[in-house]
Amino acid sequence: MKIMIGSVALELHQGDITRLAVDAIVNAANSRLAGGGGVDGAIHRAGGPAIMAECRAIGSCPTGGAVITTAGRLSARWVIHAVGPVYRDGKRGEPELLEGAYRASLQLAGEHGAKSIAFPSISTGVYGYPIEKAAPIALAAVERHLQEPSSLERVVFVLFSAADYSVYERLLAGIAAS
Q1: ∠137-33-73 over CA atoms, to 5°?
Q2: Contact 25/80 with Cβ under 8 angstroms?
Q3: What's the CA angle centered on 129, arms 169 and 34, to 5 degrees?
Q4: In what order do the strands lie in the sheet with 78-83?
Q5: Cβ-count burial of 137 within 10 angstroms (0-12 exposed, 13-18 middle, 19+ buried)?
Q6: Is residue 126 classed as helix, strand or coil in its secondary structure?
Q7: Can you name the CATH fold of 2-177?
Q8: Disulfide engineering: 40 pairs with which of 36, 48, 140, 171, CB 3.0-4.6 Å?
Q9: How confident is the model at residue 178 (pLDDT cuts 50, 70, 90)?
Q10: For the chain, percent of residues with pLDDT exceeding 70
């Protein structure tokens, strides 16, 4: 699915984020930048040891923030490591921290002149953020960012499962209709 927000394409894809041809891939990282499972593990495996070496040099990233490295063997130019919150009950700042991770990622993409960026659904895997609550935050953060001048021409949300894709698809259809 694809809609236009101004001159920027906002797209949904189901599949493997490491196979997408974009300038920047966003990694759902942990605050230690130590690699892990899910999207994080897939990006490190596909990109090779250069990404981890840069992450070790950076050291850490606070929850709600993001840092950028090269992309190793990936076709992307950069990996933006965004740290989303672990979901507890939604009343401990999780929505603001999740939005911050998306905002920080978009900011870094702009600072580096990225024309395209691919996001996973940050925090909705092992961090337990319910996708029905996380997806509106993600899409709203991107939509707000695209109201301002940006280097971006294409923003892609890459969802691993059909169920996750359908949540984003329903919300994106609502944005397109408004």
Answers
A1: 95
A2: yes
A3: 110
A4: 2-5, 8-14, 154-159, 116-119, 24-29, 78-83, 66-70
A5: buried
A6: coil
A7: Leucine Aminopeptidase, subunit E; domain 1 (3.40.220)
A8: 36
A9: confident
A10: 100
Distance CA 10, CA 117 (A): 10
pTM, rounded to two decimals: 0.97
Read off the pLDDT of residues 146-175 as tens digits, 9 standing for 90 and up.
999 999 999 999 999 999 999 999 999 988
> So which residues are the catalytic ones?
40
Residue ranges per domain, the chain?
A: 2-177
What is the number of alpha carbons within 13 Å of residue 118 lying toward its C-beta? 27
State both tokens at 19: 């196979």
Q: What mean pLDDT comes out for the span 128-157?
A: 96
CA–CA distance, 2 with 145 (Å, rounded to integer): 17
Contacts of residue 148, Cβ cutoff 8 Å, sequence gap at least 6: none
